[in-house]
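Side project, low priority. Logging it here so it doesn't get lost.
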Amino acid sequence: MLLNRLRAQYWFGVFAVAALFAGYQPVAAASNCDFASSGAVMIKETTLKDGVVKLGTLQVSKKNQNPIVAFFQSGKQVFCRKDIDTSPVDARAIAATADKDHLFVAFSSDGGANHVMAFTRFTKAGWQKSYGKGGGAKVIVLLKIRKSDGEVVNGTYVTAQKDDGKTNSIVVKKLTYENNSVQLQADSWYSPLRIDQTPYRCSGKSPFFYTLQLSPDLTTAMSTNAPQCQ
């Protein structure tokens, strides 16, 4: 009797543990590198109230550069990402700002890529979903990244446009998070884009000073301004 009771209790415990883990789905950590030993160059640091963002560039071949992003708190690495864009285009991490729970990081990219590890896997719901037509012109990619684990939760491209409809260059000057929005100041070559993504008509020579205000999820342009343009 006692032996049978002990056997029943044992198997009940086994089944209970199995049932518990049957519904368990482990979350893969986004962090996949150690910034200190990564070999990053052109390192930029941004000090926040709750930590430090480190941005760098990895020279993966003679013709290709990839960005690397890391976040530190109390001197310890919280996350490091070197897989944000590993496509054949040249990409660099340029600037960073933050809200309470997320980083907003600006990258440069000199083309679009039909590649499984390109920026576009993060920008499907963004204000601008892709690089656009052409290649060679450097544009901006903005990504919203969770501080706790480095997971990218949203993103958008920010481009300019030539008269022929091909993509033109736009370069970050300043990136801030203010008034519950992401605010970008940039130099844009002819022409920067309005809220509806149609090009401004500008007077004078490029580059043109351009400001853009985006919703926190990077899906909507709340305002744009280009003082030399209509």
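Brief comment: The chain has one domain: 29-225.
Revisit when time allows.
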